[in-house]
What we know:
The complex is a heterodimer. By secondary structure, chain A is an all-beta fold. Chain A is 0% helix and 53% strand.
Amino acid sequence: QQQVKQSPQSLIVQKGGISIINCAYENTAFDYFPWYQQFPGKGPALLIAIRPDVSEKKEGRFTISFNKSAKQFSLHIMDSQPGDSATYFCAGTYSGYSTLTFGKGTMLLVSP
Amino acid sequence: NAGVTQTPKFQVLKTGQSMTLQCAQDMNHEYMSWYRQDPGMGLRLIHYSVGAGITDQGEVPNGYNVSRSTTEDFPLRLLSAAPSQTSVYFCASTPGQGIYGYTFGSGTRLTVV
């Protein structure tokens, strides 16, 4: 079964610090890796995504690092802010497939 | 407002009751999915559809039925609710296969007593 393993389950970071969430995937056919952000009472929203032909993608304070040989990718949140407190999900899929396989999520709390 | 609309937002059912969770999107997306979210389990796929008249099972389909008669609507039916179906349900849509972002609804919180 396709799996995406995500760690840690929860994370507490001080304001201004770096938050790091890691994911590992098994299906080598995956060629699209999005991250979703979910606030309490809301649905997940696409945050940032990467294709395996690049090793890093940056959008503002959010960066995805991708290691194809290790089948791992991670989300880095620089200068973390209390407003970043949310649950983050990594996911994987491939171009010929119509659904996403999600990790189990990481609950991030950024303390003031 | 363009997006995915789910109704109701909250529902309490008694064991054995049936109900339909509604999902509608106005973005003309071909692909739609239903996920359930449980603590520590992430988002698990229940059923999905790649177009009107076409549906398929996901990871956890037991106890749920779907149909897709129009591009816009993708209802999820619980035929005989069980306490194990207590969860938050999300509907999502995307214009194409895999490499496009999914748009999620705001969810339906279902409690089965």
